[in-house]
Amino acid sequence: MTPSRLEDLAVFGSTPAFTEPRHVGRPNMPDRERVLELVGEAMDRRWLSNEGPLHEAFQERVRQITGARHCVVVANATLGIQLAARALGMEGEIIMPSFTFVGTPHAVSWIGLEPVFAEIDPRTHTLDPAAVRTAIGPRTGGIVGVHLWGRSAGAEELEAIAEEHDLPLVFDAAHALGCTRAGRPVATLGDASVISFHATKVAGAAEGGAILTDDAELAERLRRMRNFGFVAFDTVEGLATNAKMSEMNAAMGVASLERFEEFVAVNRRNYEGYVAGLQDVPGVEVIDYADGDEHNFHYVVLEVPAAVRDPLIRVLQAERVLARRYFFPGCHRLAPYAPAGASLSATDEVAGRVVTLPTGTAMSADDVARVCAIVRVAMAHADDVVRRLAADPAGLGR
Asked: Which tens digits make up the pLDDT trace of 201-254?
């Protein structure tokens, strides 16, 4: 049932709007028969890893889509950030935003580097270049920017700062496949960019990542580093690791990229449906992609008043719309990093008002309209929703 009144909401005892959960990040699926065909070819060849034909085909397709000169496919984006950091000689303190997936600081911490969290711009949710300048100190050894939601505001300023201080600059571009910044492919920003092909991304390889760069020497170094440092059949040159993508994952990746334009079109339809359905709802702002650049529209992100955010998520989840609060509470407040005591007021504020909604090919236009109806009812009665849910924090009155 699509709610139209406060008492129609499932959180207050009515029937949920959806019989099956609608997830944030539910995978966009490639054609099953195409995946099985590619996997069968790999099995027939008995070539299942070590940079096989599917790995090479996937790598080249990613390079074409991103517009980078060089693509180095890896097993996942976390390894991609680690390889890029080591290949660029990062050491000491690495400046990055706290408003990101915890995998970003984990990646550098795991290889002995120290994340230093700098403030974000509350309008763009991305790293504030002015805060980066302030954070630079004698132990600073690099900068990791994040193209959050696929948006890359401030990237040119970060490039200028990195050049001025002779610091390597890597972008966590996990969200940004197919996106551009001022007409420039996001993958060509900085010294290197790392894209994710995790199952939750716009196009996935079940697990996977890719490092993009325009630097041929860096790309060659990265290729050696992902394969134990081998430079010949029995010759190893330098410390390295195993970050290769398997042919099974590459099969998923190739088949997913064959549907990439379709996935983006569905995401855009859903995004525009959310914008149209929520544009006149007081207290709700859908983050904007209308900047003239190319986007994959894979994240539908709302900003709502902090006092309403968690009650709204509770309302949505009762309707089986599994909305989420990304990236709460900010990495600087998570156990591994909280002892450093970073004070980031803008990050705290943004983390307290962001809601992400389901999109992708698992969502129909009708599904989007129903989610909008739920949000409209909840926000029209926001004071009552907050009051009633505060009186029943465990949901025992349902």
From this structure: 999 999 999 999 999 999 999 999 999 999 888 899 889 999 999 999 999 999
β-sheet bridge partners, residue 273: none
Chosen CATH of 32-257 out of 3.90.1150.10, 3.30.830.10, 3.30.565.10, 3.40.640.10: 3.40.640.10
Task: Report which residue type is found at 126.
Answer: T
321 beta partners: 22
Task: Specify the CATH number of the domain 6-27+259-323+358-391.
Answer: 3.90.1150.10
Per-domain residue ranges for the chain? Answer: 6-27+259-323+358-391, 32-257
Query: How many whole angstroms separate alpha carbon 172 and alpha carbon 95?
Result: 12
Dihedral angle computed from the Cα positions of residues 374, 375, 380 and 385, in that order, rounded to the nearest 10 degrees: 80
Q: Is the preceding peptide bond at 16 cis, omega within 30 degrees of 0?
A: no
Average pLDDT of the residues of the chain: 96
What is the 3-state secondary structure of 258-319? CCHHHHHHHHHHHHHHHHHHHCCCCCCEECCCCCCCCCCCCCEEEECCHHHHHHHHHHHHHC
> What percent of the chain is modeled with pLDDT above 70?
99
Q: How many Å from the N-terminal Cα to the C-terminal Cα in the chain?
A: 17
Say if residues 353 and 385 touch (Cβ distance below 8 Å).
Answer: no
CA 281/CA 374 separation, integer angstroms: 11
pLDDT of 138 > 80? The answer is yes
Nearest residue to 270 via CA among 368, 130, 189? 368
Contact 158, 184 (CB under 8 A): no
Q: Do the Cβ atoms of 89 and 162 come closer than 8 Å?
A: no
